[in-house]
Amino acid sequence: xxxxxSIEVLATAADLFHAAAExxxxxxxxxxxxxxxxxxxxSGGSTxxxxxxxxxxxHAGFAWNRVFLFFGDERHVPPTDPxxxxxxxxxxxxxxxxxxxxNVFRVPAENPDATAAASDYEAQxxxxxxxxxxxxxxxxxxLLGLGPDGHTASLFPDSPALDEQSRLVVANWxxxxxxxxxxxxxxxxxxxxxxxxxxxGADKANMLHQVMEGKSTPPLPSQRVQPSDGKLxxxxxEAAAANLTP
Length: 246
Ligand code: 6PG
Description:
Elements: E1 4-10, H1 13-35, E2 38-42, H2 49-58, E3 67-71, E4 73-75, H3 85-92, H4 114-128, E5 141-145, E6 169-174, E7 179-184, H5 186-189, E8 194-199, H6 205-213, E9 231-237
Parallel strand pairs: 1-9, 2-3, 2-5, 5-8, 8-9
Antiparallel strand pairs: 4-7, 6-7
Helix pairs in contact: 1-2
Bound molecules: 6-phosphogluconic acid (6PG).
């Protein structure tokens, strides 16, 4: 599959999440039709919550028993913590759909040893995708967001995880948070069949312009997401796309 990058600008945030839900379901139907299962890595932060709620409200009847959910990154907190991406997804989606518990792969971020939590999660991915040493998983869909500094997942500018080329999941020390984050690495992101970025709101407009049209040295983490054999889709609302050249 040749790599493609497409940008879709929707009028409002509601239109953006509707388009994202449609794309999620379309990709899901294709993957289930082709392979009998749909493997997805979810993103955290605030933006995707509306998508997860919409999927629960409008697509409860989807074949969730064929969907396998992972997390592209997680904060180093227990699943009950208000900062937990798992908690956000659980409250907005998982508790409202008929997905088998064994189809949901949570990052064991309650482990006080962030490196051990990352290794554990990598082992879960290797088992699930039946990977041989040196092999990488190919997710059907990876959801990502855009941080104000150009980070995505928990791959922050000037952070150690940016250069990781062999591991799938690492504990990434983020100095500005004085904390670890557990995150997929670029090799995993760039082997996906499809990566879908969601960006909504005026506060994303400057960084989006920089990511889409700017030249940063080194490149911003979000600029380094280039699926080698897959689709890259940016779904934006007009407020977020306000500074892009028409
Ligand atoms: C996280 C995310 C992170 C997020 C961006 C955008 O755990 O925070 O995975 O990469 O996507 O920070 O966050 P907002 O959607 O809250 O703007």
